């Protein structure tokens, strides 16, 4: 499954975090779930954008690339057990906690363009954090060795991370108001 070119606007009058921001933005479970999130704008959320894995029977492999997170008051990534993620070329701006602390799951958060060569045979695009918390790998080698088995993920050619214009024609049918 691919989720791409979408504007996920978390502004709401009904906020679990009492700050006008949506908390449950994405949740990915499943016994054999494979997905990519590419070229999305995720903003004004307070958590779980996305939550990946976390269930004992889950088996979730994800490639999350070239997305733009902005104005997020809580955490973006929440990685649970039985989750393997390659995150590259993403841009985080004004995001308090790009990755919720913990030790479950496996995520490779690219910090340099050459780190993926030994696993994927290609360079990764580094993630960028701007006025945001840290975004670092958790069990990174395990994530890369798992993602390597899925050619749609391992052969993808990501662009360098960049800050997007808040008004763009990149999403769906055009500019969203």
Plain-language structure description:
The protein has about 180 residues and is mostly beta strands. The chain has a single domain, classed as Single-stranded right-handed beta-helix, Pectin lyase-like (Pectate Lyase C-like). Helix content is about 10%, strand content about 35%. The protein is built from 3 helices and 12 strands, in the order E-E-E-E-E-E-E-E-E-E-E-H-E-H-H. Strands 2, 3, 5, 6, 8, 10 and 12 form a 7-stranded parallel β-sheet that branches. A 5-stranded parallel β-sheet has the order 1-4-7-9-11. The longest helix is centred in the C-terminal third of the chain and has 8 residues, at about 140-145. The protein is globular. The relative contact order is 0.17. The mean pLDDT is about 90. This is pectin lyase. InterPro entries: Pectin_lyas_fold, Pectin_lyase_fold/virulence, PEL. One of its GO terms (molecular function) is pectin lyase activity. It is an enzyme of class 4 (lyase). Its EC number is 4.2.2.10.
List keywords for this structure.
Pectate Lyase C-like; globular; 33% strand; 5-stranded parallel beta sheet; 177 residues; mainly beta; 12 strands; 7-stranded parallel beta sheet
